[in-house]
Amino acid sequence: MQVLRDALKQAQEHGIAIGHFNIADLVLLKAVFASAQELSVPLIVGVSEGEREFMGVQEVAALVRTLRDEFDYPIFLNADHTHSLAKALDASRAGFDAIVFDASALPFEQNVQQTNKAVEAIKAINPWILVEGEIGDIGTGSQIHEAAPELVKGLTSPEEAKQFVETTQVDILAPAVGNMHGMLKSMVAGQTSKHLDIERIAQIKSATRVPLTLHGGSGTADEDLQNAIAAGINIVHINTELRVAWRHSLEEALAREPDEVVPYKILAFPLEAVKQIARSRLRLFNSPGNSSSQGVRRFR
Ligand SMILES: [Zn+2]
Fold first, then answer.
1. Which of 73, 91, 92, 223 could bond to 125 as cystine, CB 3.0-4.6 Å?
2. CA of 256 to the centre of ligand 1 (A)
3. CA of 80 to the centre of ligand 1 (A)
4. 83 alpha carbon to ligand 1 midpoint, in Å?
């Protein structure tokens, strides 16, 4: 079975990105896995500290491992935004494929120091786990925001990116390049979208030569995502778009069938709504060459 490092290497070679979707329940997991399977593309499932607490660290690891084994499928599990070393080590022991160690709220020097310490401790448990570090400010909370958050630390510079990667020894870097967690109300309504600093992504890539992750991909213009992938982004995180689809379709299902009490009949609606979003995002991320005309690059 393929490891995440190889899947990332292939993504870089083919000019595509692996879709990363957060899950908080079985509906989300089933939906994103079915979408990836339909297209035959690799998949990363992410769980934040809150999502892990809700699902259980061991439990979510067992679910994802079962899918990987049963379908012989390149599905990987990421411990998203892990703020404490203890939680990073819990996920490492549970068999996660990757860990985002996020000390980005700290001043740069402390971020470097703590991330380096985490890399060493995680690799001592399992050298195959990929560790991702984060610098710059991309806001917090994959939810709907009234107004744009003030991102005080600004965008990541190629110089600090290089220094950070070399000193911490992280495998993957999450830079701030115009991306932001969550969506504004106007983005949910489809009136506005996020725009990325493509030139900066290309500069950070050539300065670091490591896989790059784009966090907070929800609500980003398609063209920006395609250009970002061509410039060196290898993983794109989508969470809020799935959460919005999950909630709206659930409300609709409950309103339409007020007497229905069978959970799997009600949950069929959010399952389908989340699948549609995941499918269209995966199609975009896995179509090389800046155009969907060549079609999706399948792994088999
Ligand atoms: Zn994130």
1. 92
2. 34
3. 7
4. 12
What is the token pair recorded at 185? Answer: 């109300």
Burial code (b: 16+ CB inside 10 Å, e: under 16) for 120-152 equals ebbbeeeeebbbbbbbbbbbeebebbeeebeee
Whole-angstrom distance, CA of residue 97 vs CA of residue 273: 27
**What DSSP string describes 165-229?**
HHHH--SEEE--SS--SSEEHHHHTTS--B---HHHHHHHHHHH-S-EEE---TTB-HHHHHHHH
Q: What percent of the chain has pLDDT over 90?
A: 88
User: Taking residues 1-19, what's their average pLDDT?
Assistant: 95
CB distance 130 to 5 below 8 Å: yes
Predicted model pTM: 0.96
Terminal-residue alpha carbon distance, the chain: 13
Nearest-Å Rg of the Cα atoms of the chain is 18
Tokens of 300: 């088999």
Query: CA-to-CA distance for 11 and 6, rounded, in angstroms?
Result: 9
